[in-house]
């Protein structure tokens, strides 16, 4: 009710004579999000197979980041942060089970509606949004389309419910009925229906998230004999700590042939990424054909990553490794300056909302913690110090929970013995406690609430198996990163509610903390 009253007042202030020209001067926005896609599996970062040829070309012709990070490697916390510009510690959404606890002053959808945008979701939600929040809503999940109607939709839903964990054979779901294809079909159809107002559409693929199923020809493109070998194993998981070991025990309990099946699962995962790349091509090229590309901000990214065999594990859950925290991020279209090499800046999923605010000429709302990327995306000056580091959060709090005989995987709900690969990696053990990571240059520091740390030189040790924390040789780097992490923790204290009287809450136009001075 308050939102409607606020919107109505805004319309009155604008006046009933607001011209359509004034409305359509603003850029359209298309957010293309995958679920659980690793950043390093792409040609632009040196992956030796053609897994993302179209998005690679799009990146080099526009702008992209190789140091883009999620806010937390879990779907709901990440997606809620994208729409609010706030980190999980501020949104209160620290697990997939806290969506109803979302806390913010104004979000992206509110700002877009105030600016007369038509809005749509086509694909996976897993945030706090509802159908009533958007002008168009067509939701999909890992179990098929919500409220399936057609024969194809019903067949997909039935298949996914039977193949909950993983599917090792070529998928019986043909390309035309695969979810990325259907999602792009609907997104194009909805975009075609937009005439006068600027539009925002969230094209949200539920893949390449498990059950790691993919149809031909993608299944054979990435057969196990063609894949580069993983660089780590379960022995390295032991070095990574108890949460990794607990996740390994859970996976082995649910997937007794996991070690043997890993190559095929990796191939399926990569095949689905290639399928998605082809569908992204279809969507973006359609925008170009309609003359909309130069009028539309397009961003391609993911909510978080996937182990994809690293440390002998699949999915996600334990820790803050680069495989889970670093995400692909490509910007294209409206006013984006071509920058063939990756922009040298550490950026976050929380930066999307403030970036869109700047791009459409609106102010960044109070309570937003992300920073606008618009100056750097358009070739303008920006303070380098502002983007010299980035943080990622993990944990719902309390003490770490060890593997305790008093609580079994089955009792907790993390393991369904009736289904192969029927396990929940985001569980009491892997998500307990509190951890933070900070990335700066070639270095990365992870700290937990017990004072235990991890320090890695990512240039020399990209898979994070040689923990240098406490090594006197690297005490300067450790100290610098600890200082940076503390500064971030202070900066990310929730500013809401701001003081009601007297005190002036000072903010930069782009939500920067540092300046060029």
TrEMBL record:
Query: Which SUPFAM superfamilies does this one have?
Result: Alkaline phosphatase-like
Its recorded name reads Sulfatase N-terminal domain-containing protein
Family note: Belongs to the sulfatase family.
- Would you say which domain of life the source belongs to? Bacteria
Q: Tell me which UniProt keywords the record has, alphabetically.
A: Hydrolase
In its keyword annotation, does this UniProt entry include DNA-binding?
no
| Protein's organism | Bacteroides oleiciplenus YIT 12058
One Gene Ontology term of the molecular function aspect: arylsulfatase activity
The opening ranks of the lineage are: Bacteria, Pseudomonadati, Bacteroidota, Bacteroidia, Bacteroidales
The entry's comment on post-translational modification says:
The conversion to 3-oxoalanine (also known as C-formylglycine, FGly), of a serine or cysteine residue in prokaryotes and of a cysteine residue in eukaryotes, is critical for catalytic activity.
Tell me which residues bear 3-oxoalanine (Ser): 75
**What PANTHER family would the database entry show?**
ARYLSULFATASE FAMILY MEMBER (PTHR42693), ENDO-4-O-SULFATASE (PTHR42693:SF53)
Query: Is Disulfide bond among this UniProt entry's keywords?
Result: no
Q: Where is the Sulfatase N-terminal domain?
A: 27-360
Q: Which Pfam families match?
A: Sulfatase
